[in-house]
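Re: [ENG-882] Designed sequences occasionally contain unexpected residues at chain ends

Forwarding the minimal case from QA. Structure tokens:
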């Protein structure tokens, strides 16, 4: 889902060995009574515009949690272990009631009535943290909050109490699925998220046949929306942002009486829209000519792949390989993540995307990741018997530093590696 296109309307465990080692180091230092300096605070200095743990260098006011979630989820999808401080930053953005705002500059300050909680940011954070693992309490509280603000029609709006829309309802479905919930069983007044999506699905006649609308207009009429349709297809299939190629089934277009049929209808609409414009979607601001919409095209590729429309998904991916580089560089981490999701959904290699390495480009927008998951596992095994030695070696270093030698040792800490 291309959040940037819709603003302002919507905007693995941390290594257990390292945690254990840190605790042991502190205990050992206390035993011998050595005075050591306080650990460096990972938060930015006053001169830094944004937190050092955050991906991207643009103002995070409207999309900080969203882009961080997509960046971390994309890294996990390709086997990259994100920097722990970036994962921790995301988890600390949560308010006490479980919801997330688009961005909180000071996560130590309690959320209050003025904090604008956001179903999209909350759902994206759930999908990322669930994939990374080790944050069940955070994701559990977040899902609890999402359930508490479900609308009577079964759906969700961008903000609590807002009218249900296809995009928000679909990204919440992705969050529910990510934590093992069955969306059809998450009901309000007897209506599930799928009921809400079916009400936002157009029939097979007239303009926009098969599409999803974002929301009904003031007259209650539905208008086709390509961005909403890409989201609606995924939501109707019970999928999140990361998918594998699915299987095509059912008629091309029929009365959307089931979520599966609504997804089929929506996929048919996307195929038609993409075919008209040489494999990509377009968008236009008032008074301007239509321009290629790279983000929504990437989302459409994911949706089509999930629905089994692999031929068109592949064609549109190849268009993105040829044309999306400038857009991604200007847009930042969320854009690279969307392209990685599209490549993953179609079985393409995100490390050779039209000659570019999307993973390397994404990693460069924030803190260097620790290592690949595979390498991390091997390294943890090799280190498993060396904790005791590593702890007391580190204590010795602390004592030497306290004596004023002033050397900086890396010791038992792993070097950061580019995947």
């Amino acid at each position: 889902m291309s959040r940037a296109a819709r603003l302002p309307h919507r905007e693995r465990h941390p290594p257990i060995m390292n945690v254990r080692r840190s605790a042991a180091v502190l205990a050992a230092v206390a035993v011998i009574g050595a005075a050591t300096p306080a650990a460096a605070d990972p938060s930015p200095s006053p001169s830094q515009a944004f937190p050092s743990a955050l991906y991207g260098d643009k103002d995070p006011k409207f999309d900080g949690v969203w882009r961080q979630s997509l960046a971390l989820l994309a890294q996990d999808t390709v086997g990259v272990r994100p920097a722990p401080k970036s994962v921790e930053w995301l988890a600390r953005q949560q308010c006490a009631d479980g919801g997330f705002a688009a961005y909180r500059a000071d996560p130590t300050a309690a959320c209050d009535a003025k904090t604008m909680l956001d179903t999209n940011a909350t759902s994206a954070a759930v999908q990322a943290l669930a994939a990374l693992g080790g944050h069940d309490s955070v994701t559990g509280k977040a899902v609890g909050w999402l359930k508490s603000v479900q609308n009577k029609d079964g759906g969700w709006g961008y903000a609590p109490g807002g009218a249900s829309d296809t995009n928000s309802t679909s990204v919440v479905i992705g969050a529910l699925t990510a934590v093992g919930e069955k969306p059809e069983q998450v009901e309000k007044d007897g209506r599930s998220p799928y009921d809400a999506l079916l009400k936002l699905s157009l029939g097979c006649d007239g303009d926009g046949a098969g599409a999803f609308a974002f929301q009904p207009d003031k007259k209650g009429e539905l208008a086709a929306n390509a961005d909403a349709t890409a989201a609606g297809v995924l939501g109707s299939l019970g999928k999140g942002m990361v998918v594998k190629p699915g299987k095509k089934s059912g008629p091309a277009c029929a009365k959307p009486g089931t979520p599966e049929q609504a997804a089929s209808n929506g996929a048919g609409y996307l195929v038609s829209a993409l075919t008209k414009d040489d494999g990509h979607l377009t968008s236009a601001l008032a008074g301007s000519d239509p321009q290629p919409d790279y983000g929504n095209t990437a989302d459409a590729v994911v949706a089509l792949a999930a629905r089994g429309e692999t031929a068109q998904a592949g064609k549109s991916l190849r268009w993105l390989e040829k044309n999306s580089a400038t857009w991604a560089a200007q847009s930042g981490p969320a854009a690279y993540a969307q392209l990685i999701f599209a490549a993953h959904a179609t079985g393409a290699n995100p490390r050779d995307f039209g000659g570019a390495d999307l993973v390397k480009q994404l990693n460069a927008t924030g803190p260097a990741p620790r290592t690949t998951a595979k390498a991390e596992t091997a390294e943890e095994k090799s280190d498993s018997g060396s904790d005791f030695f590593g702890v007391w070696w580190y204590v010795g270093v602390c004592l030497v530093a306290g004596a004023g030698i002033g050397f900086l040792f890396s010791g038992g800490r792993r070097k950061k590696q580019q995947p």
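QA comment: On inspection the terminal residues look reasonable. Residues 259-276 form the longest helix (18 residues). Proposing we downgrade this to a documentation issue.
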